[in-house]
């Protein structure tokens, strides 16, 4: 016998078979499910309205029915094109159980290794090169019985299935699907590395940051554009901001923040802590942050192997840097990669 609850049942079946989908497609599926139930029995009372209020009410009803299963039909705004995307999310933090149905244990282990290198990437670049991704096979050879050719196939599978993005430069980053479906795992495992947008408060791996040292303002590109139309200063430190994300005055978050040599050394939790301590001690002067991309590429750390007889030269350099900072109207210095 057909009843109103069949709309939710049909809708959930359609969702589970598709993975992640756009908001427009999700709304179309909802409408088709309503039409299917009414076609089966025209006397069934099913409410439908093409309004945001009705859509929100329907989603709330769907999630109420999923509570006992620890699932949620959740949305996220794509960091690249700003479209709203929906997916069924496992709310439990259970070691990437969300991908366990598609991949075997060793493949999940490799995926976790890639995620770690992305989340621990220097300078908030949140990406990893192809070579660095393949290097994880050797790093985990005691646990992962994979060849590099097998790893290449796996990387292609992760991209094809929407878990990773691969840029034109051949760098891998987390997709909207990963950020949405694996958010509990990412939050619990990389709570110190994960950053959120100052405007929408969703997880951020691609966007812009305020140029002022120690300012915590971070925004998606689309959030920056919407905010900049209303205000011209940073919402955290009130520094004057440029009109466009490509203008000098902002720092990149994501692949554009990568510097030469950042992928040269594999990062671990211990190395991250060590690097952060060094960066807090060795911030570059403002003259090194005048151009947008070289802001970070020129901001190399002073090597630990400096001899003591170079101390006088370093003190002179620091004095010059201080003089330059005082001469400028704003003193942006490269921030630490950890907040």
UniProtKB/TrEMBL annotation:
Residues 286-298 have a biased composition (Polar residues). Belongs to the NSE1 family. It catalyses: S-ubiquitinyl-[E2 ubiquitin-conjugating enzyme]-L-cysteine + [acceptor protein]-L-lysine = [E2 ubiquitin-conjugating enzyme]-L-cysteine + N(6)-ubiquitinyl-[acceptor protein]-L-lysine. InterPro entries: Nse1, Nse1_RING_C4HC3-type, WH-like_DNA-bd_sf, Znf_RING, Znf_RING/FYVE/PHD. Residues 197-238 form the RING-type domain. Residues 261-272 have a biased composition (Basic and acidic residues). Its main location: nucleus. It is an enzyme of class 2 (transferase). This is Non-structural maintenance of chromosomes element 1 homolog.
């Amino acid at each position: 016998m057909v009843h109103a609850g069949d709309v939710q049942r049909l809708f959930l079946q359609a969702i589970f078979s598709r993975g992640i989908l756009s908001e427009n497609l999700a709304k179309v599926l909802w409408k088709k499910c309503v039409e299917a139930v009414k076609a089966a029995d025209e006397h069934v009372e099913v409410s439908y309205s093409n309004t945001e209020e009705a859509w929100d009410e329907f989603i709330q009803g769907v999630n109420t029915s999923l509570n006992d299963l620890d699932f949620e039909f959740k949305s996220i705004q794509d960091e690249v094109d700003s479209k709203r995307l929906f997916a069924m999310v496992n709310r439990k933090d259970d070691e990437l159980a969300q991908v366990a149905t598609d991949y075997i244990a060793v493949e999940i282990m490799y995926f976790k290794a890639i995620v770690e290198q992305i989340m621990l990437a220097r300078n908030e670049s949140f990406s990893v090169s192809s070579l660095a991704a393949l290097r994880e096979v050797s790093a985990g050879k005691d646990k992962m019985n994979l060849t590099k050719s097998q790893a290449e196939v796996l990387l292609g599978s992760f991209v094809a299935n929407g878990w990773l993005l691969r840029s034109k430069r051949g760098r891998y980053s987390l997709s909207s699907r990963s950020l949405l479906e694996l958010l509990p795992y990412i939050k619990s495992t990389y709570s110190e590395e994960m950053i959120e947008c100052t405007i929408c408060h969703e997880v951020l791996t691609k966007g812009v940051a305020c140029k002022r040292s120690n300012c915590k303002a971070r925004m998606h590109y689309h959030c920056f554009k919407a905010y900049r139309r209303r205000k011209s200063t940073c919402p955290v430190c009130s520094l004057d901001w440029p009109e466009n994300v490509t203008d000098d005055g902002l720092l990149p978050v994501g692949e554009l923040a990568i510097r030469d040599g950042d992928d040269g050394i594999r990062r671990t939790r211990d190395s991250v802590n060590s690097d952060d301590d060094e960066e807090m001690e060795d911030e570059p002067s403002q003259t090194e942050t005048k151009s947008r991309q070289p802001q970070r590429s020129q901001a190399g750390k002073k090597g630990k192997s400096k001899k003591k007889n170079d101390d006088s030269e370093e003190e002179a350099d620091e004095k010059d840097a201080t003089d330059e900072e005082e001469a400028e109207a704003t003193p942006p210095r490269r921030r630490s990669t950890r907040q």
